[in-house]
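Changelog-adjacent note: as of this version, every example in the card shows the full chain rather than a window. The one below runs 433 residues end to end.
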Amino acid sequence: MKFPGRVLFLCMDPQKITKQLENKPMSLAEALPLRDDISTDEITPISSLIHFDDQLAQYAHTGFETMGENPIHVGALASGDFSVIVAGKRYGKGSSREHSPLSERRAGVTLIIAESFERLYQQNADNLGLFTSTDFSLLDRIFAGEDIPIDDLLKGRDKQTSDILRAGGLIEYGRTLDINVNAVGNLASLSHVPMTYVEKIILQHMLQFHDQQEKIFPGMPVLVKPAWRYFHDIYTAMCGQLLHDAFGSNLSLHQPETIISFEDHYSYAHRPEVNFTEDRLLGIGRMSSGHRRFVQENRLKDYGYLEQEEGSEGISHAVMTETHILPGQLAVGTDSHTPHCGALGAFAYGVGSTEISNALVTGFTRLKIPEVIRVDLQGYLPCGVMAKDIVLHILADPFIQDGGGIGKVFEFSGPVAETLGTDERATLTNMTA
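Full-length structure tokens:
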């Protein structure tokens, strides 16, 4: 794989970045020190999230800040012929918004090299076919114009992720798989193996295919068929664009009766305080139009805005819990609050635009078997103590504050958990998301 474009080092010194944008080449030694902790808020600021098509490329890294300056202006990355970005530690921290790697991809970037990556950013990049690496020795080979074997870019990645990147992203990967999406659960060879509750749910939704392993374990990549897939209006237009790019007019959704859509995030977009610094209504209007068009074209069940008054028919994760999801089911949604639905004894988790786009078409999504933290609530709940108090106590634990709960599933058990009503259980599952 060749990288014919230029290399952009995201330096601590803003003047060094300005020089690179002025087409002055720089080596790694000259670029040091590199910026750490570059967040998705910097890669795609909130004001850019109204874009979902090629226009998003113009806003890549426009929120980047160092030493009090913002050296990367609108269109600078897209017009700079950059194919590689280099940065320091914890690249892509913060929000899980998929706009960030998508803006880089559409600006022409094909490889990000950093000392380390935030997990969700890297997963979103994988889904889009954007390569990431922590191997800085690649730089000398790139500068030399070497055709780098893809295997060298995939060192340390699991087979499923490697296959996704080789295919060009998750949607293309989904199109290449020859599996029966209806062959789920009941793997007899695993029925005798001790499992956590969430592993039992995953097993009942896990796809069977030719190289299926005889056991499951934390970290194992699997494909699952969710009982429900849902999305909301911030992501719909982007999903529609991704699917149009991949399938054109031949788009067909898998079991649309199990897909629910929500228009619930812009109920108050018309208020003056929302548009105090800039008028966002035009961009929000484009997103809403994209949402409604996609829903109508695919005849999906939709919860929309109320007529003649503020508000919507319901908030996605709350409506899914109240109306659709059942105990023991697995569900995915484009909402960070999706685990809220776990109050029913279901397993529900959030996914990004590409992940849900693939799931809409194929019926399956990918998952790594999660580690489980079991919270056994013994004794009784004193008068005046609520579920929120329990969660706040858990969140104050040093193990959790040090990141011990990141990427893990919380299972609540014990006599206290048994006495909690559904609303209180939803507080537990929402706040540990």
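Structural remarks: Residues 228-368 form a domain with the Aconitase; domain 3 fold (CATH 3.30.499.10).
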